[in-house]
Amino acid sequence: MTSVSRRVWHIILTSVLLLLCVFPALRVILPENTVSMSIFSARVPSDICYDADRLLKAVSYVLDTSRIYYAGKIAVVSFAILLVLKIASIKYFRKWMDIASVFLLTAGSAFMGYTVLSFANLPVDGQQYAVSFSPVLYLALIAVLTAYCSFYIQSSISRKTLIYVISTLLAFLSLVPFWIMIVNATRSTAQINQGISLLPSIYLKYNWDVLKKFSFDAVRGFMNSLFIAVISTGLCLYFSALTAYGFVAYRFRGANLIFSMIVGSMMIPGIVGSIGYYQAIFKIGLMDTYWPLIIPSMASPATVFFFRQYLAANYQKEITEAGRVDGGSEWHIFNVVIFPIMKPVLAISGISSFVGSWNNYFTPLMILNDPDKMTIPLMVQQLTGNDYKTEYGSLYLALTVASVPLFLVYGFLSRYIVKGVSLGAVKG
Hints:
mainly alpha
């Protein structure tokens, strides 16, 4: 199929989608008459009767009928622009037209689907009122989307475009929750109860004043959590790498059995031994100290397993033999030669270990009693007490403050993840 014929087929399929937007496929059945409408003019009649039980379970986005109306308008505008681009591409084809077409197709399909699903979930009274659709809507929509996907996958350029679109959507879905958290930190409790907003408000200082009123010492909690997380992550990475190197570089009796025991310990939930761990810490007098939160990080079965699998695939014994010939000790070879080779895997495990230590709530709750030693998760939990449970703006602000170090750690270490596996090693 030539490129021109493909564009002609795209015009046909886009025209069908456009007709679906203006075809009266949505029907609201009322006691006196039936109101038929298209996706483009989707409006819920003002005299429609809702079911009381279903109304309590309904989502505000479904009940806000203006969103349904505007979503239908955006869908038809997207397909109309798409049709114009396809017609223009027959004679004046540009690569940006192909990329824009995919985004317009995705946006139009998403808003069309939102309109249909919103109508389907209206909590109307099923005895006197009903909402229905024409079966042609479903069949035509499935056929058109299937045809579009098959046509786009035929082209290598379009395949890359689809990858960009999917990656953009995934990035958007990943970032939106964090953005909503940051925005809610600037909003009042009343505004948050009204629904989701993507625009900041003016209550940031008020929320911060509420935090100070409830003795939320962000600096102290930040430093306590940072102290525990940094030391725990450092010990976890170093001793796990050292253990994994021992399993790979040395051959000794019982190595497979010991490694099997380490892997087997991963199957046991940590909370199972919490009572015995608490009793041991109490008897040796380490309650209300940071050591019970730091020392256990030296033994991380999952990290040892991950490092061992990495070294088993990338370790070359010639590297250590060359170090021994040069007179280096075993510690020197590990610290200077082997440890730098593991930078990519250290970055990945470092992020996971730091996040796990920073977000750890159960163990500090069990060990720490002094308010001056509490970590950020414990302080945030205290904000959900009896008198504070309605101050959602301040709670979101506290969560935002607690999340800042996690963004910084990922920002500094993520570049090592995409680097070569043999970073710092000698290539043979």
